[in-house]
Design goal:
98 residues, alpha+beta, Arc Repressor Mutant, subunit A, three-stranded antiparallel sheet
């Protein structure tokens, strides 16, 4: 059991970070507004969780202008995808324990 628990990544313990990474695993890029709406978060709360994932090198940011409006989008890095997959694998192993 201890071996399985060690496979879980603390960075994904929070449901917001779990939601962010889940969205990024099935989308190449997701913009800030979409995260905010889909996860029903305030700007500040979303920004703090994004910052945490960025610090761990799990996501990367792209800032651009569409017309005259700024657009900030995020994508999972290869490191982030592997870490998240490993986390999910650990969760699946936990579910199989009888």
């Amino acid at each position: 059991m201890k071996k399985i628990i060690s496979k879980l990544n603390k960075a994904f313990d929070n449901k917001v970070r779990l939601g962010i990474m889940s969205m990024l695993m099935v989308n190449d890029w997701v913009d800030f507004k979409t995260f905010k709406e889909m996860l029903e978060l305030t700007d500040g709360r979303l920004a703090s969780h994004i910052k945490s994932l960025e610090e761990n090198k799990f996501i990367k940011v792209k800032k651009e202008f569409v017309g005259r409006k700024p657009l900030t989008s995020y994508s999972a890095t290869a490191i982030g995808k592997k870490a998240f997959k490993d986390h999910l694998d650990g969760l699946e192993e936990l579910l199989k324990i009888r």
